Amino acid sequence: MATKRDYYEVLGIRREATLEDIKKAYRQLAMKNHPDRNPGDAEAELRFKEAAEAYQILSDEGNRQKYDRYGHAGLQSGPASAAPEDIMSAFGEIFQNAFFGDMFGQRRRGPKPGADLAIKLEIDLLEAAKGVSKTITMNRGEPCRSCNGSGARKGTVATTCTYCGGQGQVIQSRGFFQVATTCPACGGEGMRIADPCPDCRGTGRTQEKVQLDVEVPPGVDTGIWLQIRNQGELGDPGAPRGNLRIQIHVKPHDVFERRGNDIVCQFPIHFSQAALGAEIEVPTLDGREKLNIPRGTQSGEVFRMRSKGIPDVNGRGRGDELIEVVVETPRHLSVRQEELLREFAELDHESVMPRQKSFFEKLRGYFTESDDATTRSEEKS
Ligand SMILES: [Zn+2]
Ligand SMILES: [Zn+2]
Description:
Layout: H1 7-11, H2 19-33, H3 42-58, H4 61-70, H5 84-94, H6 102-105, E1 117-123, H7 125-130, E2 132-143, E3 159-160, E4 169-174, E5 177-182, E6 191-192, E7 205-216, E8 225-228, E9 244-250, E10 256-259, E11 262-270, H8 271-276, E12 278-284, E13 287-293, E14 302-305, E15 321-328, H9 335-347, H10 354-380
The structure holds zinc ion (ZN) (2 copies).
């Protein structure tokens, strides 16, 4: 809406209108423009929303005062863009007993589904990679066993509400319209309980500890939510349960570190293996596997094992495993080992390792520069 119409103009009322006037004007407009009566009519929907918004503001003493004084600018936090559904649920209650009141409740009439339940599930990295079946325990409402969920004391029955004939609503005629409202006698349940079940106090449900098997698909990571339909809280009789929402938490692993769908493993090798090359056995998600380390491998070098990582949770292939080698220098040497190493060092005098060479070249350059600097400063003093 580019420009907002004046709320009094929208409802077609004078500034000094009473709350009753506002209600009356709004009812008329809402009846006329209700989306259910004007399917596909965008203009009517706009008028309907406009009227709802105007009513919401003007029917509230505080908001009306703000609006009177400052106009639309005074209501920055107002319900400027409420969806029709929100409007309808917000107003359904206001007009509960008004003749067209339940028209707003139409979309949600009938037994209410249960609420969603949320729980946390901790699994380890291998379970996350392979997928796992877990038994979870939770507290949730279950149909009361004493009364089978009827709410009536054992041996008695809930009787059909005579006022509405079990329909849960009553139809009233108003001019051209027939309007249904919630049955005042049974509150919409359609049943009446003369003698309530003592175990559930007539609610038909008790809080129970239940176990449920959950299939966790391969590839899940910390923070992912799994949803299991109709395993949440109990709904009204005849309505489905809410959904069960499970938040996954993957415990850190001793050997593997996860990066997206890749896993990283730091693997220590002996310095002679690094120098001469070696075939090593590395851990993977599928067990041990052989990996060739070429001659002259440096510490920190990474070897990629394709498709040995974690399967993508959406089925798009599999990550890699990255083996990061850490070259270990022996701390203790036997006499013979030391002899050989000293001999090696003597032989090596001429052939310095490549990285070392360039490092020492850089270092020589550094020393020369700083020596010059020192010399110059000495000359000055
Ligand atoms: Zn019971
Ligand atoms: Zn009834």
